[in-house]
Write a structure and sequence with these properties.
The protein is an alpha/beta fold and about 250 residues long. The protein has eight helices and nine strands. The protein binds adenosine-5'-triphosphate and ligand LLZGTKA7.
Length: about 250
């Protein structure tokens, strides 16, 4: 029998899942098998006793910058991007509840017939009861991204760490999708990420995590079981924290 216990180091975490990852091998949108695989990973760590907040990107459906590049007014395009994250949140809620994980979706843009509005104290109560809270619609404001929303909610929910589950297995010296010679860091300080302009995560999100002293762990969420491994400090990942030694 496999050991699904997670270290006590983390009481509550925020997991940011890249929207793009949810496409799986398809060119656009939501691949239900991939969503289910991420949900299985999430279920595993919830069963181990970790309280879990989720933020899901919208890159598999719509990014505001892409709309703006085609001539759309940036704010309207960004609202479309935020609505895309609500679709992903509902897909993840469905996948989690299918396997018996209790969830609540809270949206930063109120939509009363679809999900709860974002209410900090209510979200905290859900977490205390063992429910996964999926924060949708980013920050509710244009000109931001779901990285910043993830950092904001991680700080508000007093999370012990922000796990960024994406398509690369850590922070590299340059974008590994563009530079095959890029090398992965095991540990970095927030200041390193900002000073070296390493664009795995928005600078505003990194700065907020620095100010709140919440470590960021970047890993690939593409492989089944990666989340639990990384939570135990195993597997390939990069830790970003106050200083390299303490990371
Ligand atoms: N120095 C770097 N190290 C690692 N990845 C980097 C670096 N610079 C840029 N990247 C890119 O950052 C991306 C991580 O962001 P991600 O794809 O998760 O986007 P997102 O905006 O957070 O989510 P979404 O897919 O929902 O838009 C990786 O795919 C990688 O190509
Ligand atoms: O607070 C926010 C969060 C997101 N947006 C818009 O949504 C898309 C999708 O989010 P990603 O982080 O890129 O996955 C983003 O491109 C923005 O257009 C926002 O405006 N405000």
């Amino acid at each position: 029998m496999s050991d699904t216990s997670a270290p006590q180091k983390y009481r509550r975490i925020l997991l940011k899942v890249s929207g793009e990852v949810l496409m799986g091998d398809t060119p656009y949108g939501i691949d239900t098998k991939t969503v289910q695989s991420v949900a299985d990973d999430v279920a595993e760590i919830v069963k181990s006793g970790v309280e879990l907040c989720l933020v899901i990107g919208g890159g598999n459906i719509f990014r505001g910058m892409a709309g703006a590049a085609k001539g759309m007014e940036r704010s309207s395009a960004d609202y479309m991007g935020m609505l895309a994250t609500v679709m992903n949140a509902l897909a993840m809620q469905d996948a989690l509840e299918r396997i018996g994980v209790e969830t609540r979706v809270q949206s930063a843009i109120p939509m009363a017939t679809v999900c709860e509005p974002y209410i900090r104290r209510r979200a905290q109560r859900h977490l205390e009861k063992g429910r996964v809270v999926i924060f949708a619609a980013g920050t509710g404001n244009p000109f931001f991204t779901t990285d910043t929303a993830a950092a904001l909610r991680a700080a508000e929910m007093q999370c012990d760490a922000l796990f960024k589950g994406t398509s690369v297995d850590g922070v590299y010296t340059a974008d590994p999708k563009k530079d095959p010679k890029a090398e992965r860091y095991d540990r970095l300080s927030y200041m390193d990420v900002l000073a070296k302009d390493l664009r795995v995560m928005d600078a505003s999100a990194v700065a907020l995590m620095r100010d709140s002293n919440i470590p960021i762990i970047v890993f690939s969420i593409k492989g089944r079981g990666n989340l639990l491994s990384v939570l135990r400090g195993e597997g390939t990942h990069t830790v970003v924290a106050q200083d390299r030694a303490a990371a």
